[in-house]
Amino acid sequence: MTPRELTLIVAATSKMGIGRGGTLPWTGLKKEMAYFARVTKRASPGSRNAVIMGRKTWESIPPKFRPLRDRMNVVITRSTGLNAEGGSLVGSVEGAVEAVAKAEAQRAFIIGGAQIYKAALERKEAKRILLTRVLSDFECDTFFPVQLDETGKTGGWERKSKEELDRWTGEQVPEGVQEENGTRYVFEMWEKTDS
């Protein structure tokens, strides 16, 4: 049994930049990080969700926050020497999907990095992207593999309404432009339009 859906969750600039030098190019977005935590943790009683990430993403999480609490952590790596205490190590997105299915996780979230996003997007289970669109401009050297532009329809993906985002996340997501520490952003949900 495999998960019915994979949801990619990402913060990206208008040019789809997601990182610089192995870290986020913006800092201090506590409300955005709280949104990420709530959405990836929210599961039915007795269930839990999974977060799937690459080794670099795992290592970018400060050790005191690893593994991400109240979620199954799955780390994709080719390295046999990685110590991902509290996380499950697998060698591919396929292996991650199998581990999540075996654990019967309620929802599976792909949380980065760029290579993991790309591999996940090639799978039929990739149905949704929760995008925090960072409106402020940052220099990036790592990019999300799909250009989700302002038109709301692009490359087999369509931006959904605020009401649909609220319903899917199970909360009233803040509407419109948010700002923290001089960085402006909006929350969006995109769904695949073709199978």
Give an overview of the whole structure.
By secondary structure, the chain is α/β, with parallel strands linked by helices. It has a single domain, classed as Dihydrofolate Reductase, subunit A (3-Layer(aba) Sandwich). Helix content is 23%, strand content 29%. The chain contains 5 helices and 12 strands. It has helices at residues 30-41, 55-60, 93-102, 114-121, 162-169; strands at residues 6-13, 17-19, 50-54, 72-76, 88-90, 108-110, 126-134, 142-143, 153-154, 157-159, 178-180, 183-192. The strands form 2 sheets. Strands 1, 3, 4, 5, 6, 7, 9, 10, 11 and 12 form a 10-stranded mixed beta sheet that branches. The chain has a two-stranded antiparallel sheet with strand order 2-8. The longest helix is centred in the N-terminal third of the chain and has 12 residues, at 30-41. The mean pLDDT is 94.
Short synopsis of the structure:
The chain has 195 residues and is α/β, with parallel strands linked by helices. It contains 5 helices and 12 strands.
Distance between the termini: 19 Å
Over the alpha carbons, how many angstroms does the gyration radius reach? 16 Å
Class in CATH?
Answer: Alpha Beta
Our estimate of the beta-strand percent is 25-35%
Question: The CATH topology is what?
Answer: Dihydrofolate Reductase, subunit A
Any idea what the CATH superfamily is called? Answer: Dihydrofolate Reductase, subunit A
User: What is the domain tally?
Assistant: 1
- Measured as a percent range, the helix fraction is 10-25%
How would the global form be characterised? globular
Query: What is the N-to-C succession of helices and strands?
Result: EEHEHEEHEHEEEEHEE
Arithmetic mean of pLDDT: 94
Q: Tell me which CATH architecture applies here.
A: 3-Layer(aba) Sandwich
Count of helical segments?
Answer: 5
**Biggest beta sheet summary:** 10 strands, mixed
Q: Would you count the extended β strands for me?
A: 12
Structural class: alpha/beta
Report the uncertain regions. Answer: none
Pfam family, one: DHFR_1
Protein name: Dihydrofolate reductase
Keywords: NADP, One-carbon metabolism, Oxidoreductase
Pathway: Cofactor biosynthesis; tetrahydrofolate biosynthesis; 5,6,7,8-tetrahydrofolate from 7,8-dihydrofolate: step 1/1
